[in-house]
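Handout, page 2. Input:
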Amino acid sequence: MTASAPLDDWAAQAPQAAAVRYLAEHGYEQTTASALADAIGMSRSTFFRRYGSKEDVVFADHDLALASLQRQLESSDEIGYDEIVLGALEVTRLLTRDPAGARLRSEVLRSTPALRERELVITHRYERLFADFLQRKAIPGCPDWAPIALAAATVAVHNAALRRWLRNDDARVFSELERDLGELSERFRPWFGGEQRASKVVVAAFDADASPSEVLRAIAAQLD
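Output:
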């Protein structure tokens, strides 16, 4: 948060959730910070000390997630490509542990162009944390662009999954996210402390006039 450190106790986030709900119902532009403080039962001085502004209250969950991610990456002894997957999944958990609040925040962002611009800045902050961590983990000879590329791709895959969840409320999105992030990080494995996995060549024999389904069965038999 701008004015103070993020709150680690999720129960302490209840005023923030109430504030986002109020903004979604009454409109961001139409709501003053004083009205917002009154609506959530907080004095104006306490509101500004805790959140800084009505804009900051919308992004309080991101501040919490960014602070958590920074602590994790700074204290990590894990291989680089493994740790960013864990970090991205933890960010997802923090941003979605209040599903109703997450959807209301998304609604406020969609209806407020100025907030969407700040959201882009926050996306860059996630990328910067991942890229700085990966640069520390990179082996000699790693291309300069590799940490930047993996960091940006990780955030992009995460954000795409989060948008799907916001639209569809399908919990399978998160297991798919873990799989997709794992596949992505594998492509960068040799540069961040892992070994290149051997490629597997599949040889299947089938008649020249075989149908597509017969070809697929022949390949599947070789993979078993």
